[in-house]
Amino acid sequence: MAAEGPSRAFVGRQAEIADLSDALGEAAEACGGVRLVVGEPGIGKTRLADEAARIASARGFLVAWGRCWEAGGAPPLWPWSEALRELGEEAALSAGGDSDAARFRRFEAVRAALLRAGGRAPLVLVLDDLHAADAASLELLLFVARSLRGVRALVLGTARDAEVRLAPRVGALLERVAREGRRVQLPPLRAEAVAELARGVLRRPVSAQVLERVVRATEGNPLFVDELLRLLADRGTLEGLPMPASVEVVLDGRLALLPADAREALETASVFGREFEERLLERLRAGADPLPEVLAACAAAGLVAPVAGRARRHAFTHILVREALYQRLAPARRAALHHRLSELLEAAPGAPGAEVAHHALLGIASGGG
User: Fold this and answer.
1) CB neighbourhood size of 321 (10 A)
2) Are strands 182-185 and 33-39 parallel, antiparallel or unpaired?
3) pLDDT tens-digit profile of 290-300?
């Protein structure tokens, strides 16, 4: 079964697709391998896997997909069940028992199934969203990754790195898998790739000013670029555009991984702007958990990061994350936070007057200015 057709043009990933193309060539020669594609939500992990699968199909490969179920409740080894069912090899998982010996027999049966499938035609096995995989699925992946010599198969996994960092066991297993093959870290799109994507969506040339604003607003995340361009195509202007729906979905997923104090701290920090000082946030927030622990959890979720060379100063990892959090604040709370922040800044030695005035102005609606 082929993956669902992507809506976005495939741009800006020439190096990564060249690497996967080489891996397909090696797999066709019975030198199987593993690639683990990682990155933030919306960066194009599944889109890259789609393109690799398309190329593989054109070369006569069998392609099978297994997707981890992020909502919970899936049985163990679910992504493997999906993929092996597509290959007609689902019986490989039927060996019962939980002993080490029974697990080894089951894993060896899967390796034999891949060897049989590869005997019919070279094989690409895509395991999507491995950050949500159960431990048994990852242990089986590690076993297979170590057993691909002589097998005409490329195993291609995708995972969100932020979620992996928050799940130590998952992260440890995936790191071992990556060492058996290659880790492919997807970076943001460069400006020229964003321009190419814009021409495809808007069907017209894009001015340098519009392109610069799109790049600045999305920071090269392909999903965010696509959403913003489609809003631009519908509205004809970037002025007053709402937050792209995809940003809200991504943010909801990230925030769901955090405790309540961390979510409150992030919303509070959004009134500072892109960057914020730990010292001032400590006095502004309402949560009781130690702030260094809270910020460490937020950093592990990929939402904030320390500012290089600035002690106890942090920044949101993406400007759209800050904007989405800021828009979630109720107007009265937002104004009250701005007002209180202006007071804290005014009392601090050497605080820029323009910054104090900025927050004071935004805090007028709280009734305190």
Assistant:
1) 22
2) parallel
3) 999 999 999 88
DSSP class of 201: H
pLDDT tens for each residue of 232-243: 777 777 666 666
Question: Rounded to whole angstroms, how far apart are CA atoms 250 and 225?
Answer: 14
User: How far, in Å, CA of 155 to CA of 166, rounded?
Assistant: 24
Alpha-carbon Rg for the chain in angstroms: 24
Strands 304-306 vs 313-316: parallel, antiparallel or unpaired: antiparallel
Q: In 3-state terms, what secondary structure has residue 67?
A: strand
CA distance 189 to 212: 13
Q: Is 27:170 a contact under the CB 8 Å cutoff?
A: no
Residues 6+ apart with CB under 8 A from 24: 52, 55, 56, 59, 61, 122, 124, 154
Q: What is the pTM of this model?
A: 0.73
Amino acid occupying residue 261: D
Shortest CA distance to 64 belongs to which of 113, 108, 19? 113
Please tell me the distance from the alpha carbon of residue 110 to that of residue 203, in angstroms, as a whole number: 47
Amino acid at 333: R
